[in-house]
Amino acid sequence: MNGQRWDAVVVGAGPAGSIAALVLARAGARVALADKASFPRDKACGDLVGPRGVQVLAELGVHVPDAGQGADLLAVGPSGRASRLPAFPGHTYAGHGVVVPRLAFDHALREAAVTAGATPLRARITAVEAASQLNRERASASVTPIAMATTPTESNGTANSEAACPASVA
């Protein structure tokens, strides 16, 4: 895959990056979705998706397995302090949120982006070069490979192709 050209390189395959890659890939863009971690991976925070986020997922047609639904959610911090988070319905969104571990949430979003056509890369982005004023059609990103071959990243033992190679945005 060396020399591969993409219309967009999305750095970070968390919720924001995966959704950006999903939308771009569905629109027909050649998208690289780069993250330094192998997936699925867990994060320490963010297991709650509020009502507006639930609506975004519905609009994108993304199903997140193992998500629990709750109308009024109780968030408890590391100190043990709790806060009640009411979920009122809006004009365009549901009156509930979902609770799902980041391990499952981030993986589902990344898989949706890959299914839509984004190319997953396990790599660290080390530099980004902006397009010059004279040549606005071209920018590039330097990628430091972390994994050079297909690696097993699925919890069920199947493999995801995560190529690591220099990235250019055409």
Q: What's this entry about, in short?
A:
The protein is 21% helix and 31% strand.
Q: What features would you highlight for this structure?
A:
FAD/NAD(P)-binding domain; 170 residues; disordered C terminus; alpha/beta; 3 helices; six-stranded mixed beta sheet
Describe this structure in words.
There is one protein chain. The chain starts with a strand and ends with a strand. Helix 1 (about 15-25) runs parallel beside helix 3 (about 100-115). The chain is globular, with a radius of gyration of 18 Å. The chain has three helices and 13 strands. The protein has a six-stranded mixed sheet with strand order 1-13-10-9-3-2. Strands 4-8-5 form a three-stranded antiparallel sheet. It has a two-stranded antiparallel ribbon with strand order 6-7. It is α/β, with parallel strands linked by helices. It has two domains: about 1-45 and about 100-170, FAD/NAD(P)-binding domain (3-Layer(bba) Sandwich), CATH 3.50.50; about 50-100, no CATH class. It has helices at about 15-25, 50-60, 100-115, and strands at about 5, 10, 30-35, 50, 70, 75, 80-85, 95-100, 120-130, 140-145, 150, 160, 165-170. A hairpin with a 6-residue loop joins strand 11 (about 150) and strand 12 (about 160). The model is unreliable at about 150-170 (pLDDT under 50).
